[in-house]
Amino acid sequence: MGRKILFVTTDQQRYDSLGCTGGAVARTPVIDGLARDGVLYHRAHPQNVVCMPSRATIVTGQHVRHHGVWMNGVPLPADAPSVAQVLHDAGYATGLIGKAHFEPLLDPFLRFDENRMGRGGCHGPHRGFDHLTFATHGGLGPTHYARWLGHEHPGASDGYYPVLEVGSLEVNAAGGGDSGAPQVGVNPLPRELYHTDWVADRAIAWLDGLDDDADWFCWVSFPDPHHPWDPPQSEMRRVAAGDLDLPAGFPGSSAEVEKILDGRPAHWRRWWEGSLVSNYEAPAKWVPATLTADQVREVNARVHVENELIDEAVGRILRRIGERGWTDDTDVLLTTDHGELQGDFGLLFKGPYHVDALMRLPLVWRPAPSVDGADDAGAGRGRGAAVSAPVGLVDLAPTFCAIAGVPVPEWMDGTPLPRSDDEAVRQGRQRVLTEWDSRHPTGIEVHLQTIFRDGLTCTRYEPGTVHDGTEGELYDHADDPLQRINRWDDPAYAAVRDDLLADLRDHLPSRPATTLRVQAPV
Amino acid sequence: MRREIWIDRTADDVWAVVGDPLAVTTWFPGTTAVEMEGDLRTITLASGLPLVATVAVHPHLRRFQYRLQGALPVEEHLTSIDVIPGPEPGGDRFGAGSPRCLVVYSTDVVPHALAPIVDGAVGEALGALKQLMEAT
Question: Distance, in angstroms, between B92 CA and closest chain A CA?
Fold first, then answer.
């Protein structure tokens, strides 16, 4: 009998959202406990800051240029490699419960397997997973959750905020709640019917069906705290929006926002003022310059509530694992696919903005207590350790292989996560890379690549319809943790900038010979 | 959007399928039922969504056109499918005697969000049409 793997992901969660990462509002004792008993990563970055490319990286262990899913709406090829298949072939029972999103969600022709499975009530196998049960944001669409909710509780899905605008199919800009913030809704759905608890219930049910001596890999993928921000209204008593401090990254005044954004490539300011829509992931009709302090507080309050519900759901799953007698043999890893601007720079949502709000992710690994948890040199016990070296979501699949005791396939780009900074040094870890390519149907193209190394974030832009290829961003986290000052053109940083750019060129894979087509907006 | 594909069958053979409004379910994946009432065609998609469109058939041009009326939230839409004869054997002129033809599927649609959905489905459909025609 080997080590079992509980892999928990959230969607669009910031690094600073947990107690163990400095969050002071949402109570996350379960995840904090995992960090206390395991390893907390302070510099985990995604390889792309939107869902589908990032999730494709998680399941393949590959950079975006290798798996080819360069933007939302590009389906991961059916024959793409999958860590779930590797684990399945090694004798693991493999399950994915929650949001997959390896294939587009908007699919009226039901062309994609995930949607056919969700609509038809089929649970796999698919991509190496023996069992899949799907849920996503809200109660509509071709998912098992929507099918269940519609069948068992007709009309209940109406309580959710409609993610998309009916007429345009754009991300809905309609305001709600007390502040009129976009994608905020008052949801009368009882907590037990909300997707967070439903996903936890289904994960527990799948685990309950396994033999006591089974080796298993269970990916529990919560759709929250991704917008819409509409947790069960009954739970909103947990956090009073009016009592919240504004986040440190919120500039506070339009003048301050303009001052910050004017020092950056043009798309920042143009999106904020409403003259540019570069991508589908934020409401096209929403102008960030209209964002008020009260709206930021309300969005944050709802995110905090959603994060508490996730923490409690993880606690329920861990309790059941304990009841099965599996705790000592179970590794638990928890992370998210990308971050959320959530008020930083006067912005919400996500897009071609490679800053900590979107790139710095929570990542916790609690090794199975039955193993010593020591790093590769036998140092420490991996308990309460902190790793500040840069790691990526590309490293997760190799880590799962290492836990399972199977060789890391050559097609994986990543390396098993280090359990200490010393191990990270021995692995030669210095940098983590993130890239973005978007081609909006209106013709707007944006292309950027980023390296994080030595406490510096450096981003270069390729020519598109907004940039001419000379632009860039360089932030020194040591004296500018909020990334307010762009040092790209600072002569004092010219040498380090050029060195980072050379490093980026040396380590970013080449573009693939063929570019996969976008087949849906999301 | 514009998608095109060469098919190793005569333009007349391919037009016999493409120009028949009721034959769409034989070559367009994700369509499960079709019915006509006058010039109004209703296709039921695999998701259950009914696609209602006015249809115009132009045999002399081998051009099939349709304009969506619902249920997708379409502000503007027009699709034209042209079946164009390829080069005739031994000559450099294109004509009905060619054993090959080019199928061109062009769509204008608003809202923009529908564009990639239609584009992806059409790409798959043209591949299926080629497979269907060349297998017979």
Answer: 32
Q: Which chain B residues are Cβ-neighbours of A520 within 8 angstroms?
A: 116-117, 120
Q: What are the pLDDT digits (tens) for A10-32?
A: 999 999 999 999 999 999 999 99
The CA distance from A117 to A123, in Å, is 6
ipTM for this model: 0.93
In this structure, the number of other CB atoms found within 10 A of the CB of residue A14 comes to: 27
Amino acid type, A29: P
Q: Which of B47, B75, B112 sits opposite A442 (nearest CB)?
A: B112
Check residue A472 and report its DSSP letter: E
Angle between helices A254-261 and A266-273 (to 10 degrees): 150
Tell me how far apart the terminal alpha carbons of chain A are, to the nearest angstrom: 40
Q: Identify the pLDDT of residue A373.
A: 67
Query: CB contact, 8 Å: B127 with chain A?
Result: no
CA distances from A354 to A259, A328, B105 (A): 18, 38, 38
B111 with A170: Cβ contact below 8 A: yes
Could you tell me the two tokens for A149? 């909710």
For residues B50 and B37, the answer to whether their CB atoms sit within 8 Å is no
With beta carbons less than 8 A apart as the criterion, state whether A177 and A185 touch. Answer: yes
Reported pTM: 0.96
Residues 6+ apart with CB under 8 A from A499: none
Three-state SS at A221: strand
